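FYI - complex with FE2/S2 (inorganic) cluster, inputs then prediction.
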Amino acid sequence: MATTADYGLGEFTFPRGWFMIARAEDAVSAPKALRMFGRDLVLYRGESGRAALLDAYCPHMGAHLAAEQSSGAGARRIEGDSIRCPYHAWRFGPDGICNNVPYFDGPLPPAARVRAFPVEERFGCLFAWHDPEQMEPDYPVPDLPEWEDAAWVRCIYDDLGQIPVHPQEIIDNLVDARHFGPVHGQRLAYFNSRFEGVTGRQLSGGGHETMTSEGGVLDVDAYYTGPGILIARFSGETDAVQIVLHTPVEDGVTHVWHGIITRGRQVPPSAEDVELHRQYQQLGLSAFSQDFEIWRTKAPALQILRLPTDGPFHRNRAWYRQFYNPRAQAAGHQGRANGDHATKGLDQAPTAAAAE
Ligand code: FES
Ligand SMILES: [Fe+2]
């Protein structure tokens, strides 16, 4: 298992960005222990419906905020959008600040707080902003308007659990033009990589065993917004969006989720549309599992023996480095990645070629 330092990514062990922490339905009023970004955390949903993510350990005497109270006495742990510690019942708001101690009226010391992470609930996911510099988010969670569109069939995300692989290996996939044939049995008609700020994009087209008929082309626009959220739009004979989310758990261990949504042929989608969606999600999962299997068993690619006809791994890694270094240096890393990059030996995406 290789670490952030092994890849030479930068000074932070865990990257800055929006990361999935749980599926929306996983957050309930009972506090839940999570482990992510090398930290013990507590996730809960307040009475308003707002989800909150806090560091797990109470600053009073260190109890885990998600620990159970076996007596059941005073079991009301969530009050409004605040959570009470199970040990002496100090109460913390979603901002992490202690706002009540049942046996003390005076002003509380400033240290009576835990670290709180900004949380957003979008397209069936709970995302938290992780920032080693503890600053406010500098980009938003991407939009997925299809999720709100009555013509589309939503998904329940597949929780693929943790793999002992550094997220760098998953990120490399974005520009890996040459794995499509061997891993997915896919023939590429064109391939392009495009980086712009916090966005890393792959534009590809090709035949697909199941999603196109003979000679048909499936166009794919797959893009990362920050280091943890990949949205891939498929257009052709079927419109679908694949969502792949990955979050560092420990240094070198990654949690992965996957989902697909599809446009139904009827509004609202018919039973047939729902069945078709179920097949797509399975199909997407099995395609993704082909990558997963390689990642699970491979040695870390600390240095890529890159050939001129490989994809632009070096640009992609430069792009990824921005998230492991102070925000003040982000523009420098982006500058080494920004732009449209063709892969020698492969045609360019029609839009990229037109831009030239
Ligand atoms: S340890 Fe949390 S209130 Fe005492
Ligand atoms: Fe792949």
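The first strand starts at residue 17 and ends at 23. The chain is about 20% helix and 30% strand.
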